[in-house]
Design a protein that fits this description.
Length: 559
């Protein structure tokens, strides 16, 4: 009996499935698949497809396969396969033992192609690519039949076998479906099913020199795996008649149903694989996992959590209308998660030394601060207060602009979790740069709010003696232009030259000595940071800025 789901469907695909289950279509089963081509790393757009395929299966107590759609060996490799698997697991989804490869169906696909030929539904064509384009017609003009269309079945079989045996050069012949050269749908104008490519394959080695095309392979792979609902992006809508045509001609265990949904686009981002490959190949970024890349490996290194990406996918929903999602929405989902899950810490990014002159040189007070203002379970951390401290250069102004609430000459400020201090004097170098502040403290103000005293600002600090010295990489959006793909000019012209700035000699509070790669923190008043997955060393810590504290999206929604 069908698994029935009584809750309101959360998207149009779930609605279709509920209806299918009511009618006992596919025997009430739900089996989806995520079908990456191993020709690059996964990006945030793929995350939407992964999330949709796996959660749809979960919702209806079905299964989701991982299938590598590996029919283009010249662009594919094992590095991509490994990174794809690792990214899906990181996102929190598991295909269990159902890891499939279209290439493992090559024998079946070949036999089924022979069957199509025997049934007079496919033929070997010798048109060159240029000729084929000419014969194909246009959107407004019908195509012309290939001169080879009526080649005898025996001859077609013989030629196909010889294609497989390697007797011909790349492009000399192709196998085409015999459908309709006058079809208004260009995909139905005798599409190519097989082409000759003398190319080594990462899975099948040198066994094959003919490779099946995507449209022929995908539907058959789906059917062989018993996929019920084959979810794909909208640009495949016009391919659905071909998907169904192939399955209708052959005797297969199932006829899966293709359903299209809108792909994810995000502003200030490119998601085309070709462009991502170009960014890597031209060294415009440091690699596929550069923290500015929209790849899952890049986002992971940047400090994105898997949960925040899953929530984002849930928030954007699944529709049939293409649109562009504001990157601020992605950052909002990230901040929401990081706010709850990141312990707080103090980090001084641009250190300015201050000396509390009325605090004894050998004195230390171990102050205890909570790791999270709203979550006691994260516990506490300890920071020694001493005579010599670092504050951030931007928290002091010699000549303050109006409304400046932090430290000024002769003014007071509270050091977070410690005392109110007053700036008594500045020390400058020969060029007039401030190198040190001389301060005093009010011993009566430790921890508690000062009574009857106006101290507006609270700033963070780190003790000089115990500070952990670190490199901090400040990341910003990779593109300055909202639609780098569509704006006039090459998308590479819009790369943000300030998308990475590296700060050396940052000073972190001593509790961060115990950090580990991929650990995330909120550096108070600065943003969310992560210990770099690749470059972090205990004796040479490196942190990445994940995202700043200001939530432009959340703010806009609450207006
Ligand atoms: P290409 O086929 O040009 O190499 P692709 O982005 O389609 O690139 P695939 O590896 O074929 O990459 O994609 C795997 C699955 O992810 C497909 O089902 C595809 O439709 C889906 N997908 C890819 N990009 C997006 C996106 N931006 N939004 C939603 N789904 C996507
Ligand atoms: Mg694709």
């Amino acid at each position: 009996m069908a698994n029935s789901m009584t809750a309101t469907p959360s998207n149009f695909i779930h609605q279709i499935i509920q209806e299918d289950q009511k009618n006992n279509k596919h025997n009430g089963k739900v089996h989806t698949r995520f079908p990456p081509e191993p020709n690059g790393y996964l990006h945030i757009g793929h995350a939407k497809s992964i999330w949709l395929n796996f959660t749809t299966a979960q919702t209806f107590k079905g299964l989701c396969n991982l299938r590598f759609d590996d029919t283009n060996p010249e662009k594919e490799n094992l590095e991509f396969i490994d990174s794809i698997k690792s990214s899906i697991h990181w996102l929190g989804f598991d295909w269990e033992d159902r890891e499939f490869y279209a290439s493992s169906y090559f024998d079946r696909l070949y036999e089924l192609a022979l069957k199509l030929i025997e049934d007079g539904k496919a033929y070997i064509c010798s048109l060159t690519p240029e000729q084929a384009r000419e014969y194909r017609g246009t959107l407004t003009l019908p195509g012309k039949n290939s001169p080879d269309r009526d080649r005898s079945i025996e001859e077609n079989i013989d030629l196909f076998k010889r294609m497989k045996a390697g007797e011909f050069k790349d492009g000399e012949y192709s196998l085409r479906a015999k459908i309709d050269m006058a079809s208004p749908n260009m995909n139905m104008r005798d599409p190519v099913l097989y082409r000759i490519r003398h190319q080594h394959h990462h899975q099948t080695g040198d066994k094959w020199c003919i490779y099946p095309m995507y449209d022929y392979t995908h539907c058959i792979s789906d059917a062989l795996e018993g996929i019920t609902h084959s979810l794909c992006t909208l640009e495949f809508e016009d391919h659905r008649p071909l998907y169904d045509w192939v399955l209708d001609q052959l005797d297969l265990p199932a006829h899966p149903q293709q359903i299209e949904f809108a792909r994810l686009n995000i502003n200030y981002t490119v998601l085309s694989k070709r462009k991502l490959i170009q960014l890597v190949d031209e060294a415009l970024v440091s690699g596929w996992d550069d923290p500015r890349m929209p790849t899952l490996e890049g986002m992971r290194r940047r400090g994105y959590t898997a949960a925040s990406i899953r929530h984002f996918c849930e928030n954007i929903g699944v529709t049939r209308t293409n649109s562009v999602v504001d990157v601020a929405m992605l950052e909002h989902a990230l901040r929401e998660d990081l706010d709850q899950t990141s312990p707080r810490a103090m980090a001084v990014l641009r250190p300015l030394k201050i000396v509390i002159e009325d605090y004894p040189e050998d004195k230390e007070e171990i102050l205890t601060l909570s790791r999270h203002p709203k979550d006691d379970s994260m516990g506490e951390r300890q920071i020694p207060f001493r005579r010599e401290l670092y504050i951030d250069q931007t928290d002091f102004e010699d000549i303050p602009p109006p409304g400046f609430k932090r430290l000024v000459a002769g003014g007071e400020v509270r050091l977070r979790g410690a005392y109110v201090i007053k700036c008594e004097d500045l020390i400058k170098d020969a060029e007039g740069n401030i190198t040190e502040l001389r301060c005093s403290h009010d011993a009566a103000t430790l921890g508690a709010k000062p009574e009857g005293r106006k101290v507006k600002g609270v700033i963070h600090w780190v003790p000089v003696k115990d500070a952990v010295k670190a490199e901090i990489r400040l990341y910003d959006r990779l593109f300055l232009e909202e639609s780098p793909d569509k704006a006039d000019g090459d998308y590479r012209d819009f790369i943000n030259p300030d998308s990475l700035s590296v700060l050396h000699g940052c000073m972190l509070e001593p509790s961060l000595k115990a950090a580990a790669p991929e650990q995330r923190f909120q550096f108070e008043r600065e943003g969310y940071f992560v210990a770099d997955r690749k470059d972090y060393r205990t004796d040479a810590p490196v942190f990445n800025l994940t995202v700043g504290l200001r939530d432009t999206w959340g703010k806009a929604q609450n207006k």
